[in-house]
Amino acid sequence: MTDLNAKPEIEFPDGPAPEGLEIIDIVVGDGAEAAAGSTVDVHYLGVDYESGDEFDSSWSRGSSINFPLRQLIAGWQQGIPGMKVGGRRKLTVPPQLAYGPAGGGHQLSGRTLIFVIDLLGVS
């Protein structure tokens, strides 16, 4: 049973990173559905696909975050719509849908990223 009140753990992936966005529902929510133009309230954990190192987590900061989807990386803009409040979803995001190719100026440029996202609210 998945505890949505606890920080998720991500199993280290096996094999090469996927070339496209990979969306896996860990828990399907039963609340309001996120749409492309939504503002979402989420808890999330982000790790590097290759190293497994955590690079960001709202859980570590102790509070969820709230923001419009249109302000986020393309992987989130494509991977969250359709998700329902109360759900937990894993997104594996290739570089072109995250922070771009290596050398792009962001510390995560060129990296495939894994996010586990809990959708707490949508407006």
UniProtKB/TrEMBL annotation:
**A GO molecular-function term, please?**
peptidyl-prolyl cis-trans isomerase activity
Matching entries from SUPFAM superfamilies are given as:
FKBP-like
**Family of the protein in this entry:** Belongs to the FKBP-type PPIase family.
> Does the keyword section mention Isomerase?
yes
What is the designated name of this protein? Answer: Peptidyl-prolyl cis-trans isomerase
What are the protein's UniProt keywords? Isomerase, Rotamase
Q: Where does the sequence pass through the membrane? A: none
> Which residues does the UniProt record annotate as the domain PPIase FKBP-type?
37-123
User: Is Isomerase found in the keyword set?
Assistant: yes
Look up the EC number in the record and give it.
5.2.1.8
InterPro entries linked: PPIase_dom_sf, PPIase_FKBP_dom
What reaction does this enzyme carry out catalytically?
A: [protein]-peptidylproline (omega=180) = [protein]-peptidylproline (omega=0)
